[in-house]
Backbone:
């Protein structure tokens, strides 16, 4: 993947469970729970389709230990292979918690498109 993905607007009500969709299946090493991942990602709000974050815009990938990430990423990235692109639709409880949780994205359903560049 060499370019920032467009995140398609999803019609209908927000899902109440994590939805995982492989847009591109990778053929490299597999991400494992508790491991470290090197990713490019775009995040948008489900309701508005507005982008709230993208590593692409900073010009460099992000390297994270999975246990430090939101629940949706902890559940949705393991099993993904390097070279893959996966979309996660994350209900609030697996993202930044219920409304009033103190984060600007609390209470919101989020969509992430994640490119897995490497695992550690």
Residues:
């Amino acid at each position: 993947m060499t370019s920032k993905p467009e995140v398609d607007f999803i019609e209908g009500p927000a899902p109440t469970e994590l939805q995982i969709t492989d847009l591109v299946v990778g053929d490299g090493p597999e991400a494992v729970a508790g491991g470290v991942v090197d990713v490019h990602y775009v995040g948008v709000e489900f309701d508005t389709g507005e982008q709230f974050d993208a590593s692409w815009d900073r010009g460099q990938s992000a390297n994270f230990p999975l246990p430090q990430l939101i629940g949706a990423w902890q559940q949705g990235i393991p099993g993904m292979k390097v070279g893959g692109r996966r979309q996660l639709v994350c209900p609030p409880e697996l993202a930044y918690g219920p409304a009033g949780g103190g984060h600007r994205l609390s209470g919101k359903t989020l969509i992430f498109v994640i490119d897995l560049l490497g695992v550690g």
